[in-house]
Every structure is written in C-alpha cells, then in structure tokens.
Amino acid sequence: MMGAAVLAASCLVAVPACRAAGNIEAGREKAQLCANCHGAAGISAIAGVPTLAGNLDAFLQWQMVFYRSERRKNPVMGAIANLLSDEDVRNLGAYYASLPPDTRPLPPDPKPDLATRGSEVAQEHRCANCHTDEFTGKQGAARLARQREEYVVKSLTDYRSGQRPSTGVAAMTEAASGLHDDDIAALAHYLAMLP
Ligand code: HEC
Ligand code: HEC
Predict the structure, then answer these.
(1) 131-149: b or e for each residue (b if 16 or more CB lie within 10 Å)?
(2) Ligand 1 centre from 38 Cα, in Å?
(3) Mutual orientation of helices 149-161 and 181-192 as an angle, nearest 10°?
(4) Ligand 1 pocket, 51 CB below 6 A?
(5) pLDDT tens track, the chain, 195 positions
(6) 98, 121, 152 — which closes off a domain?
(7) Which whole-number Å values give the CA distances from 138 to 54, 88, 144, 174, 182, in the listed order?
(8) From the CB of 153, is ligand 1 less than 6 Å away?
(9) Which of 58, 71, 118, 195 can pair with 66 through a Cys bridge, CB separation 3.0 to 4.6 Å?
(10) What are the backbone dihedrals phi and psi of residue 138, each rounded to the nearest 5 degrees, phi first?
(11) Whose CA is nearest to atom 6 of ligand 1?
C-alpha cells in the first residue's frame, strides 16, 4: 500500500521510469549486477558506496534515472545505469525497497557528542520535515537512518557545491547550502548511528 502511494506521488512529478510498480523477483535477478558493490542484501560494506536496502522505491528510481541521464554525475554508476531499461529501473527500485534495512546492533558510539551535535543541527535545519522524525524517508526524500557516514558527507558536500542536483524543487540544494563542514560531519555521524 505504502509503496503504491509513494509511486503514485512520484508519478505526479513525472519520474520518466514511472508507470506500474516493479517486479521484485525480476529486480532480484538483475541485482546480481549490483551485489559486488552494494552488498548481497543491499547493505554496503564498502566506503563511498551507499546502502540501498529499505530505501524508498521512488527515491531509488529517481537516482538510477539521474545517473543514466548524467544529471547526477558518477562514472561508475553512470556506466551501470546505461545498461538499465526503464523496466529494470522499476524492478530494481521495487526490489531494493523491499529489502529490510540494516538493523544489526551497532557498537557503542565512539563519538556521542558528535551525534548530539548532529541531532541539534538536524533540528535547526528541519531535516525531519521531509525525511520524517525517524529519518526513514518519505516519497522522493531518501531514507537516511543508518546510511554510511562517509557517503552522507559526500552527498551533502555534493549538494552544497551543486555537483549533485536535487529533484524538482531543488530541495536538497537549498537544505545543504547553509551547512558548514562541521555541521555536515555531525549530521552524517548522527544519521549513521540511528537505529
Ligand atoms: C562498481 C561498484 C558499483 C556497482 C556494480 C553498482 N553500484 Fe550503485 N553505486 C556505486 C557508488 C560508488 C555509488 C555512489 C556514487 C555517488 O557518489 O554518486 C552508487 C550509488 C547508487 C545509487 C544511489 C543511492 C543513493 O542513496 O543515493 C543507486 C540507486 C545505485 N547505486 C543503484 C545500483 C544498482 C541498481 C546497481 C546494479 C544494477 C548498482 N548500483 C551497481 C557503486 C556501484
Ligand atoms: C524540503 C525537503 C527536504 C529537506 C528540508 C531536507 N531534505 Fe534531504 N532530501 C530531500 C529530497 C527530495 C532528497 C532526494 C533528492 C535527490 O533526488 O537527489 C533528499 C536527499 C538527501 C540525501 C541523499 C541521500 C542519499 O542516499 O543519496 C541526504 C544525505 C539528505 N537528503 C540529508 C538531509 C539533511 C541532513 C537535511 C537537513 C540539513 C535535509 N536532507 C533536509 C528533501 C529534503
């Protein structure tokens, strides 16, 4: 139900790949191309590679389409996205969204003060307005809870510099524009430590 609602919402703003919901089994098959980097269960163990498991169908589809059109520039993902048809994009979005997010117990936080600071910065900048209070994401606004720390630093830095354009209304370009490097480090740590 939730997936259908999200997809319907994204159809309003015309995701090119957006028609019917994808086929999870076909997505699982295609994801053999992705597992070396993104992990067999969609949970990345590699620095710089995001975890995909449990992220939102609409968000994931957008990113594949952005890489394919080179609106979001990355040599590795650009080459891979070029191999994907619209149907593959739908199926892969459905598949990765269906996988359970990372819930393995975390070791004790080595930097609890940094996490507290990150939580304050998130409140000051109202990040939860779009990403939800638990940071599990909503519609095109990514799931952030438990995302890899160094990857979130890169994402926020890329939005801030304009290297990574945001969807439609430039939500993230605006949200990241006022962030200092220290804020970004604190936010990334806070989000990576969320359950
Ligand atoms: C060789 C390693 C590699 C392979 C194989 C690979 N990816 Fe990626 N993927 C990456 C890296 C690195 C990034 C982050 C790039 C950046 O910073 O923009 C990424 C980013 C993504 C993102 C953006 C996620 C987000 O949170 O913004 C999606 C979606 C994605 N990949 C899907 C896939 C799919 C689907 C496949 C298989 C068809 C795949 N990738 C195969 C390395 C890989
Ligand atoms: C007005 C709504 C809005 C606000 C406020 C907002 N975001 Fe976002 N965020 C989005 C959307 C939409 C996306 C997906 C953009 C895209 O397609 O690249 C996103 C994507 C992201 C990503 C990329 C995740 C990934 O896996 O690639 C990060 C990190 C992020 N947001 C962090 C934040 C932080 C930290 C704040 C507060 C400083 C914030 N956001 C505030 C809407 C918002």
Answers:
(1) beeebbbbbbbbbbbbbbb
(2) 7
(3) 140
(4) no
(5) 344 444 444 444 445 445 568 999 999 999 999 999 999 999 999 999 999 999 999 999 999 999 999 999 999 999 999 999 999 999 999 999 999 999 999 999 999 999 999 999 999 999 999 999 999 999 899 999 999 999 999 999 999 999 999 876 679 999 999 999 999 999 999 999 998
(6) 98
(7) 12, 22, 10, 18, 26
(8) no
(9) 71
(10) -155, 130
(11) 34
Residue with tokens 């199926």: 91
The DSSP result for 128-171, as a single string, is: HHHH-TTS--BTTB---TT--HHHHHHHHHHHHHTSSPPSTTTH
Give the count of domains, the chain: 2
44 touches ligand 1 (CB under 6 Å): no
Q: Are residues 78 and 125 in the same domain?
A: no
13 CB less than 6 Å from ligand 2?
no
Residue 155 CB contacts under 8 Å (≥ 6 apart), including other chains = 164
Asked if 144 and 78 sit in the same domain, the reply is no
Ligand with minimal distance to 30 CA? 1
Provide the whole-model pTM.
0.92
**What does the block give as tokens for 59?**
């968000």
CATH number for the domain that contains residue 182: 1.10.760.10
Taking the CA of residue 187 as reference, the ligand 2 atom at the shortest distance is: 35
Range of 148's domain?
Answer: 112-192
Say how many Å lie between the CA of residue 58 and the centre of ligand 2: 13
